[in-house]
Design goal:
Blueprint (H helix, E strand, L loop, with lengths): L2 H9 L7 H8 L3 H13 L4 E4 L3 E4 L8 H6 L3 H6 E10 L2 H7 L8 E9 L17 E10 L9 H15 L6 E3 L3 E4 L2 E12 L5 E10 L4 H9 L14 H7 L2 H22 L2 H9 L7 E5 L4 E9 L5 E5 L2 E5 L3 E4 L4
Parallel strand pairs: 3-4
Antiparallel strand pairs: 1-2, 4-5, 5-9, 6-7, 7-8, 8-9, 10-11, 10-14, 11-12, 12-13
């Protein structure tokens, strides 16, 4: 455990801590403590400094812990977990898995981080999440034989993420094609899939997941001002009393690992077909007037579900068109 992680462990209870006490506990100077705190602020953590009282986090923080996460897994997933790495700060959890050893057949490799300096979203965007406020996770899986509808893997992953979140007591999520999770008309999670290998197998898939659990107001405002889909967090749905009992990031991380594992086993055998009905049930765009933009074209119409290959079906003046890629936005009523 590094010094910065130790400092966070001391502050994690959300109470005030004297700078002198922190310095003594960490065997650092007051100046060194302040420098670490400033760096944590750059990572999006809200840290309040009050003369005479010390330093306090904006909210209590449960740090991710590999032993705690593994202890929450069911026996089947734990048996198939080849490796679980937990980092404080990393460039990219997906990048770490892509550059490391490939998983053996039927085995999972998982990387989780408190903060990513280079997390990726769709179409080259950066996935932004304050330190310790969400789940930044990637899961690596080996396909010996490639399912015919591999292009739908991100949609199946979306169903798995909703199953995981619902199992932790958070209903009301929906799926926005192709890989965003929506809560209260804001983005609560995103999924990005990378594949490497031969088109007919074998290949390795790395599923990256970013899930907002907490969201400081200052961070929320900065993203909204940049024109992104408004960010929301699971904590937005809880009362203060519920947060103390329901909001365990380690439990949520374990739930994600288990449902992603089950999804990958099922997808290896049946492809997307066993997930299509549930995806349609969660379809956020269904029946909405939308605009689809890509580098080469723009189209607007009524979203009417997804095709068997995971494409978005768009009703354009009575003609059903299949959209396989593009940026989708909901049109506001005039």
């Amino acid at each position: 455990m590094g010094t910065r992680d130790e400092l966070l462990g001391l502050l994690a209870d959300g109470g005030f801590h004297s700078g002198n006490v922190l310095a003594d506990r960490l065997n650092l100077s007051r100046t060194a403590v302040w420098k670490h705190l400033r760096k944590l602020s750059e990572y999006g953590l809200v840290i309040e400094a009050v003369p005479g009282r010390g330093y306090q986090l904006g909210y209590p923080l449960e740090l991710l812990n590999s032993a705690t996460i593994v202890g929450e897994l069911d026996a089947g997933t734990a048996k198939c977990l080849d490796q679980l790495e937990v980092y404080g700060v990393i460039e990219s959890t997906s990048g770490k898995l892509r550059s490391g050893p490939k998983p053996a057949p039927d085995q999972l490799r998982v990387c989780v981080a408190e903060y990513q300096t280079g997390g990726r979203g769709r179409r080259g965007r950066q996935w932004l999440s304050p330190y310790g406020s969400g789940i930044c996770m990637s899961v690596s899986w080996h396909f010996e034989n490639v399912p015919g509808d591999l292009s739908s893997l991100s949609l199946a992953a979306g169903v798995a993420v909703i199953r995981a979140v619902e199992a932790c007591g958070f209903p009301g999520l929906s799926l926005k094609w192709p890989n965003d999770l929506i809560l209260n008309h804001g983005k609560v999670a995103g999924i990005l899939v990378d594949v490497e290998g031969e088109s007919d197998g074998p290949l390795t898939a790395v599923i990256g997941i970013g899930l907002n659990v907490e969201m400081p107001d200052s961070f929320r405002t900065s993203l909204t001002d940049e024109g992104h889909l408004p960010p929301v967090a699971l904590a937005d749905t809880l009362t203060d009393v519920q947060k103390g009992h329901s909001l365990s990031r380690n439990r949520i991380a374990a739930s994600l690992i288990m449902t992603i594992h089950r999804m990958l086993v099922e997808f290896s055998g049946t492809g997307f077909s066993s997930f299509a009905e549930q995806w349609q049930r969660y379809d956020y765009l269904l029946g909405r007037e939308v605009r689809v933009m890509s580098a080469s074209y723009g189209e607007q119409g009524t979203a009417c579900g997804i095709g068997s290959n995971g494409s978005l079906l768009l009703d354009v003046d009575g003609e059903i068109k299949q959209v396989v890629s593009g940026e989708v936005s909901v049109r506001r009523a005039s």
